[in-house]
Amino acid sequence: MVNELLDAIDRASANLTKLEGVWARAQPSLPTGPALGTTPEYEDLQRTWMDLLGGLPPVDGWTITAPLPDMNELGQTYLDYADIGELPTSAWEAAEQPGRDLQDRTATRTATGSVTRFRVEPGLRRSARTSAGAAEHLRLMGDGSASVDP
């Protein structure tokens, strides 16, 4: 049972690393001002992102579920803000959300609400080796079987 949990953690960690790679490639493609359209490469990254999300089990009841921003919708949002003469705050937030989600995935909150940075999966891996609660960890993680090469 512990080996199954460790395998699930390894798959989840690999998928998280792949998601970080997808985001690193996708982020520079996002518009930073008024623009319309998308690219086939970005659409491929969007599909890969969604495929990889299936391999991320919830940690403390939370996991990433949001797709990458739609380039065309984001560019249109910038156009809309330009038309009304306001700062495009919602466009900025939408463009930054995947990065924030990835940061949240690799952080844990302490009892006081402060954030302690570390990779969650290696922490679970260490606790699984004790075998205490391994069955519960495995049940909460599901099988974590989705793994896609970006």
From TrEMBL:
Residues 125-150 are annotated as: Disordered. It comes from the Bacteria. This is Uncharacterized protein.
